[in-house]
Write a structure and sequence with these properties.
Helix content is 3%, strand content 38%. The strands form seven sheets. Strands 19, 20, 22, 26 and 28 form a five-stranded antiparallel sheet that branches. Strands 21, 23, 24, 25 and 27 form a five-stranded antiparallel sheet that branches. It has a four-stranded antiparallel sheet with strand order 8-7-9-10. By secondary structure, the chain is mostly beta strands. The protein is elongated, with a radius of gyration of 36 Å. The protein has two domains: 15-172, no CATH class; 264-395, Jelly Rolls, CATH 2.60.120.660. This is Minor tail protein.
């Protein structure tokens, strides 16, 4: 018989007929296989899954697995075994090894004599005992079983020594499964692929969609701003999110970038001087010999450059001090030469504060740029001083 049908054959329905035709009971993995797992849900709706929970008895070696429902997928021809544990199941763990720790499994297991020759036809909750070792690992899971928990049994553990530490020893490994089309609630470490494009899951409070090759975070709403922590990658180019540091970000198709380019500022309160008649970045008599700032060219490729200083020409009423910016883009000087037309200029032995601003166009969006303060005097015999130097770059439209 190549095709099996439930509740159709006049000569009787086999157990296999029933199992393989449970087409709506579990999440698909292939066109014929489903995902083994515990059915999610809790009495008050607070928890992802409460069925088949392991709770230990303080100070002892016994634990109880609570009622719940699950599905265990066997080989394709055998189908999937739906299981309901209607009453709590008690388990007793063997005492710990004298020297080494061990890791035991708690599993929901199917025995089917027609296939495994076990002489048993039943579903049970049982312990698969691990091997003590200096670095213990869990034993292999039996065929047609569902791992619920691992439990670390420390060396020397027994009821007489305080029993298993039930706060730290168990590790919850219960997978979940839902009906076809249902949203699958999963553990944060679940790396299983989706069953089909359009399959959804809820993981770490994020809704994701399987696109055929990867899980993609589902947009919170087209045009909406996703709250902080909701998305690790964008669902579409142009999506916005609130980053954990409070910065608005935009998804560019491959990475999150700052959506609003903010001004960049640099300053020095340490006065420095020069007698150079050519523009120079280096000042004397100061701890800040050269003032620079780095900025990223905005999407428009245009910025507003603000710069200035408190200047004076030592002992001279005829000399002038000049300050102008030099811009480099990706390490290359963007425009050259710097000239007095763009400068902030001041002359006189009594200090005065001057500043200016101009618009720079043609930068490559996203390029790394550097602004450097340049200084000069128009008289090599006069020392020009620069104090309270500042530079600021604002994105421009």
């Amino acid at each position: 018989m190549n095709a099996r049908s439930a509740w159709l054959s006049p000569s009787g329905q086999t157990r296999e007929d029933t199992r393989v035709t449970q087409i709506g009971a579990l999440t698909p993995v292939t066109d014929l296989r489903g995902r083994s797992g515990v059915l999610p849900g809790s009495a008050d709706g607070i928890y992802r899954v409460t069925g088949l929970w392991l709770g230990g008895t303080a100070g002892g070696m016994t634990a109880t697995v609570s009622p719940g429902r699950a599905v265990i997928q066997a080989a394709d021809a055998r189908g999937a075994y739906p299981i309901a544990l209607t009453e709590p199941a008690s388990l007793t763990f063997a005492d710990g090894d004298a020297q080494y720790d061990r890791v035991d499994l708690v599993v929901l297991r199917v025995y089917d004599h027609a296939y495994d020759g076990s002489g048993r036809t039943e579903a049970v909750v049982e312990i698969v005992e691990g091997t003590p070792a200096a670095t213990p690992s869990a034993p292999p899971a039996p065929d047609v079983s569902l791992v619920l928990f691992t439990v670390t049994v420390a060396a020397g553990t027994s009821a007489g020594t305080g029993g298993i530490n039930w706060d730290t020893a168990p590790t919850d490994l219960r997978p979940t499964t839902v009906a076809i089309g249902g949203i699958l609630p999963t553990r944060s470490d679940d790396n299983a692929a989706g069953g089909y494009p359009g399959h959804y899951r809820d993981i770490v409070n994020t809704l994701q969609r399987w696109d055929g090759t990867a899980w993609i975070p589902y947009p919170k709403g087209i045009g909406g701003i996703a709250p902080a922590g909701a998305l690790t990658s964008g669902g579409y180019t142009g999506q916005y999110r609130d980053a954990s540091n409070g910065v608005l970000q935009r998804w560019n198709g491959s990475a999150w970038t700052t959506a609003v380019v903010t001004p960049v500022f640099a300053s020095s309160l340490d006065a420095g001087s020069t007698t150079s008649t050519a523009y120079t970045a280096t000042l004397s008599a100061t701890a800040v010999t050269s003032l620079t700032l780095t900025f990223t060219a905005p999407p428009t490729g245009a910025v507003l450059l603000h710069f200035g200083a408190r200047m004076w020409t030592s002992g001279s009423t005829t000399a002038a001090a000049y300050m102008a910016p030099q811009i480099t883009q990706d390490g290359t000087v963007f425009f050259n030469p710097v000239n007095d037309e763009y400068s902030a200029v001041y002359g006189g032995p009594v200090a005065g504060s001057v500043s200016t601003m101009w618009r720079l166009n043609g930068l490559t969006p996203g390029a790394t740029c550097t602004m450097t303060a340049l200084h000069r005097t128009n008289d090599s015999t006069v020392t020009c001083w620069f104090d309270n130097i500042f530079m600021r770059v604002d994105p421009a439209g």
